Amino acid sequence: MSWTRALTLFAGALLLASAVLATLGAPTGAPAQRVVITPGMGAGQVAELLRRRGLIRSGVLLRTLLRLQGAAGAIEAGAYRFSGAQNLWEVAHTLEGGGAPVTVKVVIPEGYTLRQVERRLRAAGLGSVQTYHRLFAQAALSRYARGSLEGFLFPATYAFTPGEAPEQVVLAMVRRMEREFLPSRLAEARALGLSPFAWVTLASMVQAEAGSNAQMPRVAGVFLNRLRAHMPLQSDPTVAYGLHIPANQLDYARGDFAKPTPYNTYLLPGLPAGPIDNPGQAALLAVLHPSLTVHGKKALYFLVGRHGHLHVTASYAGHLRDLRLYR
Known about the structure:
single chain, 327 residues, mainly alpha, Dna Ligase, domain 1, 3 domains, two-stranded antiparallel ribbon, two-stranded antiparallel sheet, 8 strands, 9% strand
């Protein structure tokens, strides 16, 4: 073959390769979109993700381009904005620039139990119920918990990164709760005769019983007065917790209130075996600053009646009257 012929073929091959590259590297015209790259994704996975989303035509070509530019191993996790008007080289440049931080926002409401928190975290894609069930049984993760972490996961809005280790998720909630245990508050609890564990246990009951934050000091006052008078606390939510049913499903006729569990405060004196939910700050502070009297007398009974109104009395006769009028 002559040199002229060889050069012609080579030039033709270059033109063909250039045409293929131009075609494969051209903008796809896909709609602008946000793409989240999670920790640990390699260049090949990223390229395939962008190809499936219609933002590039060739994952192989993008992966090769990234490797030639030395960026294949430096793609940061984050949120990236791509436009179908970008060519392959512009897509690669966007990847090299890094993405915006990505977080998974999880709201843990006041009064959620461990089982409810497990389901909320699973729904957020942060791990399985089984994993959290195991971790929540590790009371040693908190300085003050016993038996489990019930009561010691602070209700709040949390921002986690995708793929965050469940252990770190749990520790974040435990550590946030421990910020509530200020020395001054622990001293106030001791003055009321409450250990940190008893304080949280009582706060969890206040959280479950009160219809609003404003009602909590009055509910806490009734419980504290009953403890001091050695009266049974008779809290329906504790009975329900021990039976693993919602409080509104308790049934006297079925004998629910006569069933012995470590949480039945109708049968057992004092506080239940432990917290029945994870109380918020308002409930914790209500226990430390209770409203102990009603009309100048010790408050010993309460009822959250129709329309969520709280009725507090100092006598059983007054309580029977409230039951007749407001339930």
